[in-house]
Write a structure and sequence with these properties.
With 327 residues, the chain is an alpha/beta fold. Helices cover 41% and strands 18% of the residues. Bound molecules: 6-O-phosphono-beta-D-fructofuranose (F6P).
Length: 327
C-alpha cells in the first residue's frame, strides 16, 4: 500500500538536518511512497504549508547547513487551538506518518500532537546540544563541536602571543556536552558546565598556576548556562577575585551553521532510513536514535523526561589534562 509521509524540522536548526530530510525522501520514494515537506516547522504545519518532495528536490542538500524546510520556534503550536489546527491540516492532507526532526521542544510537540492526531508520529534527534536521552548522539552535535574547535584554535594564536586568559562561551543552556568535548579537544585549561558545581577561586588559582608553570595563553571553555549572567558576568567576578583581565569570546550561533561533518551526514542519513523502516513497521510515538552504532526506538516521553548525563569518567579526567592538573 502506498503511504503518505510528511517531514518537518523544528526548533533550533542543526547541521545534518538536510541529510536526514534527503534520506527520508530518497528511501521512502525508492519504495514507492509519497513525501510532503512541511515548511517552517510546527508553525507551517498548523497553517497547512505542505509541499511535495521527490528525489530530485533533495539533490545537493546533503552538504548544506541549516534546513531547506526552514524552522521556527512556534508559540501557536503550544496552544490547544494550534494543536487542533495542525491535526486538521494533517487530516486534510491525508498524511499517515509525520517525521519531526528537532530537539527536546520538538519531541515534546510530537507527544502533544499525538494526543490529538491518530496518525503515526516519529521523531529524529536534531540538535547541536546532544541533550536527548536515549541516543548516543544527536544530529548536528559533531559539527558544532568541530566548528567551535576551529574557532578556538584561532583564538589560541592570539591568546599565546599576548599571554592572555580567554573565556570562550559555547552553546548549551542546560547541557554541557558541547563544552566538555570542545574543552578536551582544544586542550583548554578547564571547563564550566551547568551539570558540575565549581569554585571560582580554585579555578582562578589554577589559571595562575598554569601561568607559573610556563603556560602562555589559557583557555576556559564555558557552557552558555553554566554561570548566571553568562560569560561576561563570570569575567567580572573572576576579575574581582584576583584582579586578572580576561578576554571574552561568545561563539554563539556560529556553532549552528556550516556544512555538516561526515559523522553528522552519516548519522542523519542512517536515522532517516531507520525512520522510514520504523514507519513501515507500524511504529508510533517513538524517537529513532542510535546507541553503540545500532538503531534504537525510544518512547518520546522518555527522551525529554530522563536526563542525559555527561560521562562521569570524562568529567573526572578532563581537568587532569591541563598543565596545572586537577585542582
Ligand atoms: O539549538 C539549541 C540551542 O542552540 C541552544 O544551545 C541555545 O541556547 C539555543 O538553541 C539558542 O536558540 P535561539 O537560536 O532560538 O536563540
Amino acid at each position: 500500500m502506498k503511504r503518505k509521509f510528511a517531514v518537518l524540522t523544528s526548533g533550533g536548526d542543526a547541521p545534518g538536518m538536510n541529510a536526514a530530510i534527503r534520506s527520508i525522501v530518497r528511501v521512502a520514494c525508492s519504495m514507492g511512497h509519497e513525501v510532503w515537506g512541511v515548511h517552517r516547522g510546527y508553525q507551517g504545519l498548523l497553517a497547512g504549508d505542505f509541499r511535495p518532495m521527490g528525489p530530485r528536490d533533495v539533490s545537493q542538500i546533503l552538504e548544506k547547513g541549516g534546513t531547506v524546510l526552514r524552522t521556527a520556534r512556534s508559540q501557536d503550536f503550544r496552544t490547544e487551538v494550534g494543536l487542533l489546527m495542525a491535526t486538521a491540516a494533517l487530516e486534510r492532507q491525508g498524511v499517515d506518518t509525520l517525521f519531526a526532526i528537532g530537539g527536546d521542544g520538538t519531541l515534546r510537540g510530537c507527544e502533544e500532537l499525538g494526543k490529538h492526531w491518530g496518525g503515526q508520529i516519529l521523531a529524529l534527534p536534531g540538535t547541536i546540544d546532544n541533550d536527548l536521552w536515549g541516543t548516543d548522539f544527536t544530529i548536528g552535535f559533531d559539527t558544532a563541536v568541530n566548528t567551535a574547535l576551529g574557532a578556538i584554535e584561532k583564538i589560541r594564536d592570539t591568546a599565546d602571543s599576548h599571554e592572555r586568559f580567554f573565556l570562550v562561551e559555547v552553546m548549551g543552556r542546560h547541557a554541557g556536552f558541547i563544552a566538555l568535548e570542545v574543552a578536551i579537544t582544544c586542550g583548554a585549561e578547564d571547563f564550566l558546565v551547568p551539570e558540575v558545581p565549581f569554585d571560582l577561586k580554585t579555578l582562578c588559582d589554577k589559571l595562575h598556576e598554569g601561568k607559573a608553570l610556563g603556560k602562555t595563553g589559557s583557555m576556559l571553555v564555558v557552557a552558555e548556562g553554566a554561570y548566571p549572567g553568562g560569560v561576561h558576568a563570570l569575567a567580572l567576578e573572576m576579575a574581582k577575585l584576583n584582579g586578572d583581565e580576561f578576554r571574552i569570546c561568545v561563539l554563539g550561533h556560529v556553532q549552528r551553521g556550516g556544512s555538516p561533518t561526515a559523522a553528522d551526514r552519516l548519522l542523519a542519513t542512517r536515522l532517516g532510513a531507520y525512520a522510514v523502516e520504523a514507519a513501515l513497521a507500524g511504529e508510533r510515538g517513538k524517537m529513532i536514535g542510535e546507541s553503540a552504532g545500532r538503531p534504537v526506538l525510544v518512547d518520546l516521553v522518555q527522551t525529554f523526561t530522563q536526563k542525559k548525563l555527561l560521562d562521569p569518567w570524562t568529567i573526572r579526567m578532563a581537568p587532569c589534562l591541563s598543565l596545572a592538573g586537577a585542582p
